[in-house]
Amino acid sequence: MNRTYNRMKIFTTWPGMKQELEECIRQCENCQRNKITQNRTKLPMKITTTPEIVWEKCALDIVGPLNQTIDGHICFDVSGRTF
What we know:
Layout: H1 2-11, H2 17-27, H3 29-34
């Protein structure tokens, strides 16, 4: 909202402009669909110990459902390494 307001006030201004812009943007479907959110969803890195023996630590990622080809095949490529 602030970027739009700052851009607009370069060219024009009127009393209550900021409130009108806020209301307009709040009601604008395209504005709400395309806005950039500032939510930080990344968690801080967790420090872990190095495994001493094989399979002491194991990671599992679950994915799906996966699309099939016309022949009914599913292609899935896995590459990973746990440190």
